[in-house]
């Protein structure tokens, strides 16, 4: 259990772990940029929420017998939150609850059906056992033994046990070694040789190579890490598991172990009702959670978010970059609060720093030339970006890491590499010199052109980074690049599949307490071909970087002095290659309305993160178990 010891060591040091915050000082005239979306018409069989006499009523249009069984639940016993909708006003693929289906969006509400073995509270550094009780690695870091909690059951009454854990692993190994068309399958197949049942409550996972960090990648759920467990007694009967939607009202799918179960799903909302026979309450593990119903809805833009949180139509939402709207909401309502109350920065630092990525596998892209990539890096004025996109409420970043205390130690020890490669410098003259060296010349519009092709193209932007993208595009145009802002509900899928040559996104699958996890984004075995969806969207790899990564991956995270020289070697290569352009840190601004619910997680009560739909499991589960009726 070296990795757990290492993490505890970090937190036991006299170092302030709490995520670094920034002072928000909004300059006069800071711009507010919002995305526009087309509303989708409602189809038959969907539901709408209407408020009558304090009740949350579900009105069915052309509903089936199964949906007609959904009963009314009073608003004060219903928790409503914004589901993940990629910026659209409706939920994406609401009738797909299969986390492993690449077309699905599991975070839109269905995640409340499921529970993790363990989750990691990154705010205070605690490992929280849930379906699991403990795990232990052998001395060689090649095997991990997992002990499960007795009494856990699936919603259909079948026991959750080691058979389900081993089955989930082996299913993903088989797929990852074959078509690799299931989420996490390639990652699992690259790391795991086999999984087996030792006894009903014990599973053993054998790795392909020593990996002291393995439990915190696939057994523990936090941010983008961890697996979603599936019931062997159902999934073993499914032929095409990659295409399986895991949603069927008549069969009662999905079947999870969680305290809530989906009773209806539509593009407007996903509705889950509390299971009063939940195993956790029956075994005494936890009391039944207070919310009897959980509703996830799509919202779309920040203006609608602000209206709904003000009016108490939702209990939790996200105002990601609209600080002016957020401050207005906080001023207008005593009921609305944030992670830091009504004081800046209204947020906690996320693991998801933002970057401008290049698609290194894109053919005929100007960005295959490292000189062009470096020219782009010189073209970005990060201070101006923070001023206009964030109203001053963020922090420039030169690394692909968040500024968490254990990671800041590494960055501080290698800060000279940033200076050596001028990776954080804004300099239009140096940018222009590199473009000329690469054979480009200004055309009649003042834009860089070579062989009749302009350097740039549509820049795909993740929906929560709309303001960032628009400022960056203007900076690139000012530097002579043919940058075109592109941000639609399809943008997320486009850059995950490699259908764009550059894009703005965060760092999924990255590091929290140790630098190695982020480095996985840049190794050959994780370089996904164009057309296949991935969260590692740079599609960059280098054999020297690969070799350094493999050495670091075998070293326990507590051996920092042994890791640091290798870290420096790796990022000397990374900065020299201008792999991407880090922009700024990520912050989660999560407004919460306390009219109906209290005991939200806050900086003073950090029992988990405040964002309910952000992660595949763990934090959202803990929020819904933690909130209590306001009255």
Q: How would you describe this structure to a colleague?
A:
The protein has 631 residues and is α+β, with helices and mostly antiparallel strands. 27% of the residues lie in helices and 19% in strands. The protein is built from 20 helices and 28 strands. It has a five-stranded mixed sheet with strand order 22-21-23-17-24. Strands 4-14-13-12 form a four-stranded mixed sheet, with no helix packed on it. A four-stranded antiparallel sheet has the order 7-8-10-9. α15 (466-478) links the parallel β21 and β22 (482-486). α10 (370-379) packs antiparallel against α14 (428-437). The radius of gyration is 24 Å and the shape is globular.
Structure described in brief:
The protein is of the alpha+beta class and 631 residues long.
Question: Helix and strand layout, with pairings?
Answer:
Layout (H helix, E strand, L loop, with lengths): L1 H11 L34 E6 L2 E6 L4 H4 L4 E2 L3 E5 L35 E4 L4 E4 L2 E6 L5 E6 L13 H15 L8 H7 E8 L2 E6 L7 H5 E2 L10 H4 L24 E6 L3 E6 L4 H5 L9 E5 L4 H9 L12 H10 L3 E2 L9 E3 L4 E5 L11 H10 L2 H9 L14 H9 L1 H6 L7 H10 L3 E2 L5 E3 L2 E2 L1 E6 L4 H13 L3 E5 L4 H6 L5 E4 L10 H4 L23 H11 L6 H17 L3 E5 L2 E3 L2 E2 L3 E2 L20 H8 L1 E2 L2
Parallel strand pairs: 4-14, 5-11, 21-22, 21-23
Antiparallel strand pairs: 1-2, 2-3, 5-6, 7-8, 8-10, 9-10, 12-13, 13-14, 15-26, 16-25, 17-23, 17-24, 18-19, 19-20, 27-28
């Amino acid at each position: 259990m070296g990795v757990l010891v290492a993490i505890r060591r970090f937190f036991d040091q006299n170092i302030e772990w709490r995520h670094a915050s920034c002072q928000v000082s909004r300059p006069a005239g800071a711009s507010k940029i919002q995305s526009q979306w087309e509303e989708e018409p409602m189809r038959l069989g969907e539901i709408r929420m209407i408020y009558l006499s304090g009740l949350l009523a579900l009105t069915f249009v052309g509903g089936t017998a199964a949906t007609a069984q959904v009963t009314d639940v009073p608003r004060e016993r219903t928790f409503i939150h914004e589901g993940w909708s990629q910026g659209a006003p409706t939920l994406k693929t609401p009738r797909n609850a299969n986390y492993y289906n690449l077309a699905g969006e599991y975070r839109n509400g269905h995640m409340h059906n499921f529970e993790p073995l363990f989750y990691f509270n990154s705010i205070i550094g605690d490992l929280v056992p849930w379906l699991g009780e403990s795990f232990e690695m052998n001395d060689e870091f090649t095997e991990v033994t997992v002990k499960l909690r007795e009494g856990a059951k699936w919603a259909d009454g079948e026991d959750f046990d080691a058979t389900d854990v081993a089955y989930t692993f082996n299913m993903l190994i088989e797929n990852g070694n074959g078509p690799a068309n299931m989420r996490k399958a390639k990652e699992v197949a690259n790391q795991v040789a086999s999984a087996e049942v030792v006894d009903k409550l014990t599973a053993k996972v054998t790795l392909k190579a020593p990996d002291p960090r393995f439990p915190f990648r696939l057994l523990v759920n936090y941010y983008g890490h961890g697996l979603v467990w599936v019931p062997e007694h159902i999934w073993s009967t499914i032929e095409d598991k990659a295409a399986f939607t895991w949603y069927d009202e008549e069969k009662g799918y999905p079947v999870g172990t969680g305290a809530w179960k989906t009773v209806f799903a539509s593009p407007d909302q996903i509705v889950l009702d509390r299971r009063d026979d939940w195993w956790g309450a029956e075994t005494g593990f936890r009391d039944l959670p207070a919310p009897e119903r959980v509703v996830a809805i799509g919202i779309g833009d920040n203006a609608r978010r602000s209206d709904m949180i003000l009016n108490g139509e939702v209990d939790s939402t996200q105002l990601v970059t609209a600080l002016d709207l957020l401050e207005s909401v906080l001023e207008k309502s005593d009921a609305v609060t944030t992670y830091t109350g009504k004081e800046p920065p209204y947020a906690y630092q996320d693991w998801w720093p933002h970057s401008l990525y290049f698609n290194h596998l894109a053919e005929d892209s100007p960005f295959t030339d490292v000189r062009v990539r470096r020219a782009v890096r010189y073209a970005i004025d990060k201070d101006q970006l923070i001023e206009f996109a964030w109203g001053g409420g963020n922090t420039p970043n030169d690394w692909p890491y968040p500024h968490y205390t254990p990671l800041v130690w590494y960055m501080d020890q290698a800060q000279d590499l940033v200076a050596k490669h001028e990776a954080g410098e804004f300099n239009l003259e140096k940018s222009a010199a590199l473009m000329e060296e690469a054979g480009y010349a200004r055309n009649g519009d003042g834009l860089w052109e070579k062989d009749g092709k302009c350097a740039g193209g549509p820049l795909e932007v993740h929906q929560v980074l709309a303001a960032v993208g628009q400022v960056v595009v203007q900076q690139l145009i000012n530097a002579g690049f043919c940058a075109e802002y592109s941000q639609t509900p399809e943008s997320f899928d486009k850059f995950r599949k490699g259908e764009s040559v550059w894009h703005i996104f965060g760092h999924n699958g990255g590091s929290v307490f140790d630098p190695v996890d982020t480095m996985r984004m840049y190794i050959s075995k994780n370089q996904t071909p164009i057309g296949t969806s991935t969260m590692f969207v740079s599609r960059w790899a280098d054999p020297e970087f690969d070799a350094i990564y493999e050495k670091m991956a075998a070293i326990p995270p507590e051996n920092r002095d042994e890791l640091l020289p290798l870290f420096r070697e790796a990022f000397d290569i990374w900065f020299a290659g201008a792999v991407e352009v880090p922009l700024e840190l990520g912050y989660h601004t999560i407004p919460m309305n306390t009219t109906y619910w209290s005991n939200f997680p806050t900086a003073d009560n950090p029992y988990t993160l405040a964002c309910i739909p952000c992660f595949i499991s763990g934090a959202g589960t803990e929020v819904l178990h933690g909130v209590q009726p306001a009255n």
